[in-house]
Design brief:
about 350 residues; alpha/beta; Rossmann fold; 2 domains; 6-stranded mixed β-sheet; two-stranded parallel ribbon; about 35% helix; elongated; disordered C terminus
């Protein structure tokens, strides 16, 4: 039997709701030179700046996905989509979930994923979202998503994975959805198991003392303490959190008290002279925020990933991003299915060709 050779050089992918490219980075790691990104869409201008600093593409990043025409998007094999889910609350209240997929999904950003994939019929659709999506609107939202993908002609797999199980010290649970086109044998697909490698915050800390600007003022620290006590007295669990550097960070978030929920004690600071305007003095307890680079490491981004924007933007970007290690582990499983399917299809074609050649010679 003739040896099967792949019919194309690379799998073509598109990166929707791309953020700073975390999902793409995970797939690039898993597929190596066997994947090529042909289209990127992200509306946030600051996220686009960080994306462009770290990925060299010959095309511009598209902006508003709702205005992008599916027929003008290049053909692709893999759709990457970390879509927002906020719009589903409106969809649930206003329309219900007893209609077909277009009726159920209209007005949401997930619909744009659906319409683009309905047109192009990629081999795989990969989505990531917050864990709460699974129980949103008593689970009906999640059923809409899976039902939509099924109606489009895909076998759908989903699970919740925690970043702390994949080599980063961050307690971050997210739901992952993988949909294979039904003509592809995906029966052997499985989500990755935990790596078993334990890490702690100390592993991702800056090796050299960080700037005094990351240390809280004594006035602000006292404000946080009073705020937390007020909530505790009411039976609430809100407030700042000082993490043990031998332990795990909480989930990174970009809003509210995102940075204050992952404070650490780092007593390496020697010069307490403020470099920014603060009330009071720099605290002498060593309490500081994690730096943007430390946040990047908590999300599995390599130190070669360029961080050139102001800290405010970087914290938001990494809080909104994905854990690259988890994405890479899932992408490796996806690649295994695609390669097996190509080999199976190619071997069948080779066998038919061989039989045809034998019959012709006879």
């Amino acid at each position: 039997m003739a040896e099967y050779k792949r019919g194309h050089e690379v799998f073509r992918s598109i990166d929707l709701f791309a953020g700073i490219g975390g999902i793409r980075l995970g797939f690039d790691r898993a597929f190596g030179d066997e994947i090529e990104t042909v289209y990127v869409c992200e509306w946030d201008e600051y996220a686009k700046k960080t994306y462009k600093l770290n990925f060299s593409d010959s095309f511009d990043i598209a902006g508003d996905i709702t205005k992008e025409k599916e027929e003008e998007i290049p053909s692709f094999d893999i759709c990457l989509a970390g879509f927002p889910c906020q719009a589903f609350s409106l969809a649930g209240r206003r329309m219900g979930f007893d209609d077909d997929y277009k009726g159920m999904s209209r007005g949401t950003l997930f619909f744009d994923v659906a319409r683009i994939c309905e047109f192009h019929k990629p081999k795989v659709i990969f989505c990531e979202n917050v864990k709460g999506l699974v129980i949103h609107d008593r689970g009906r939202t999640f059923e809409v998503i899976k039902g939509t993908l099924n109606q489009l002609g895909y076998n759908v797999y989903s699970t919740v994975l925690n970043s702390k199980d994949f080599g980063v010290p961050q307690n971050r649970e997210r739901v992952y959805i993988v949909a294979f086109r039904k003509d592809i044998d995906s029966s052997g697909f499985k989500f990755p198991e935990a790596t078993g490698r334990k890490t702690c915050i100390k592993d991702i800390m800056e090796k050299d003392p960080v700037s005094v600007k990351y240390y809280l003022s004594d006035v602000y620290l006292e404000t946080l303490r009073r705020h937390k006590k007020r909530h505790q007295d009411k039976g609430n669990g809100f407030g700042y959190e000082i993490r043990d550097i031998e332990g795990t960070a909480g989930a990174l978030v970009c809003g509210g008290m995102g940075r204050e929920r992952n404070l650490i004690v780092d007593k390496r600071l020697k010069d307490f002279k403020p470099v920014t305007h603060i009330k009071g003095e720099v605290n002498r307890e060593g309490v500081r925020k994690l730096t943007p680079r430390e946040w990047a490491r908590l999300q599995g981004f390599p130190d070669s990933f360029k961080l050139e924007l102001a800290d405010t933007h970087l914290y938001k970007q990494f809080g909104n991003s994905v854990t690259v290690n988890v994405i890479e582990a899932i992408a490796r499983e996806i690649k295994s299915v695609l390669v097996r399917d190509e080999e199976k299809t190619g071997s069948f074609i080779d066998e038919i060709r061989m039989r045809y050649k034998t019959d012709k010679e006879a």
